[in-house]
Amino acid sequence: MLISPRRLALASFSCLLAASCSSSDSTPAGGGSDASNQDTGSSGDAGSGDSSSTDTGGGGDTGATFRLTIDNYLSWCSVSVDGGTPTTATPITVDVAPNAVVHLHADPVAGFIWGYWYGTPTDGATKDTQTSQTVTVTKDMKIQACCPTQASPTCPPP
């Protein structure tokens, strides 16, 4: 079967038109960025005695983050955030995306004992005595890690 040049041109134009109507652009409605392009890594200096700041999410175009501040009372604990390098820094500040789940762990430095976390959502009116804690950050939060001495097993609240 022979196709006339006019029909061939019309068919080619139709294919070209159909291809231009379809899009492989994966940008979500509203112009935001795809979650796979968001920064979910950690960074920051965790040097001893210096305050530490870490970014655990919040990438993309929204700019909305919450600040998690960890007060390591008198630097008597070695605290890690999301499996990062333990540090005695205080305060430790972490900017996270809304509803981010942050894993905290603390151990006492030499000469001190593990006390508790103060200010975690699960502690209620008591102190959380587990060395590991998971926190869902839904607002700016301040949490204290307490590693006191055996003789004085408490820390003043932040």
Report how far apart the termini are. 86 Å
Main sheet overview: 5 strands, mixed
In what range is the share of β-strand residues? 25-35%
Report the count of strand segments: 8
Q: Mind explaining what this structure looks like?
A:
The protein is mainly beta and 158 residues long. It has a domain at 40-146. Helix content is 11%, strand content 29%. It contains 1 helix and 8 strands; from the N terminus they run αββββββββ. The strands form 2 sheets. It has a 5-stranded mixed β-sheet with strand order 1-4-2-8-6, with no helix packed on it.
From the structure above, extract its key features:
five-stranded mixed sheet, 11% helix, mainly beta, 1 helix, three-stranded antiparallel sheet, 8 strands, disordered N terminus
Please describe the topology of this protein.
Elements: H1 5-21, E1 52-56, E2 66-72, E3 77-81, E4 92-96, E5 100-108, E6 116-118, E7 132-137, E8 141-146
Parallel strand pairs: 1-4, 2-8
Antiparallel strand pairs: 2-4, 3-5, 5-7, 6-8
